[in-house]
Amino acid sequence: AATTAVYKQWIPDTNFETASNWDKGRVPCASDVVRFEKSKVISVFVRSPHALTDMYLPLNGEFVLASGAGFAAFDGSWDPGCDSGATVRFADAEHHAWFNPTLWQAVSPHGELETRGRIFSMDEERVPCRYDDVIFQPETSFRVNVDSSRRVIHLRSISLMGQELSSPEAWAGYLRGPSAPLQFHGNGTLQVTGTGCPDKSGCACGNAPDSHRICAALLEASGKQCPALTCRSPLQPLGHCCKVCGATINLDFTPDFDLRKYRDRLVQDLLSQPKYAGVRMAISKVHKAQTFLGVIPQSPTPLIQIVLIDDKAGAQTGTTAEQLAADIMEDVAQHGEALGISNGEVEVATGSTFSGQAGSHALSRITAGTVLGLLFSLLLLGGILFLYRKGKLR
Known about the structure:
This protein is an alpha/beta fold.
């Protein structure tokens, strides 16, 4: 399970020595007055000793002191780097939301930044998914708002303060301690399961119920609007907040399909080719909503979604991604049965006017659904009229 697990690390902290946590953009020095808002609940990690003139503490909070850390009263001696005597306030950490993708980064199992390079994630998958491992860096304090549309947010494990909690019992014990209420707040509840994805064909992320929170946080960070695109009819991948130019492939699979092996195959055999140097790929299992006759909702269908984008500009936007999509579909046609792929469907949106439509397959499906829906409605109305004339309906 460790080889296929995804580790996501929380970025912000509430450490005393982090300059951005103070309204003056610097760590308080000896002649300063330190003020924590009395109503703000907070946990603050202190790494080193500090001399201070005065400090106002919150009514509900904690200092977590590293070895040798602490506070002392300023003795009045002159410090060349500290002659302001200002009031320095601790910043508000209440707005750090769990479902903000910009506050997470993928890391390796040992905590180093993951350098995937050519592989990216859909926006919903940038936030910890139900089978992911969450890491809060050792020797840091934090506060996270876990407001959610779900009562329980499931995770594989949580590492904090240098210890990994990977069982429901261990996590329940931590929640009963004094620090958890200061670190986590909001209406959601985190639940550690200790289990990874049980399906070799992959598992859906599970963050769809909170997609509106994820997209709102992303759009706020980017100026409240999606990037301008050059293609005429951009694509909307499942689990992504903004539309893209390039190509998407939806694969139907059999029980023999192995998502990790297939991703490695695409990276090694196709994506690593020099001609595709500017292409980035996302691949994951998603659940796509289905309808009967284009009208009646049915249960979502699991499929493998591949999203391809490239670094081309103007009329060339997405053209290299389109070529890679064609190569993938050719590979599916030749080896799909052996790979556990039963069917594949591609949609393309590039910068050119000819292929700027959202793919003929998608257009034909929409048209067919509309026609079938109209026929179904006419048949229903005709049946009602027939029964009414026969006197069987009033």
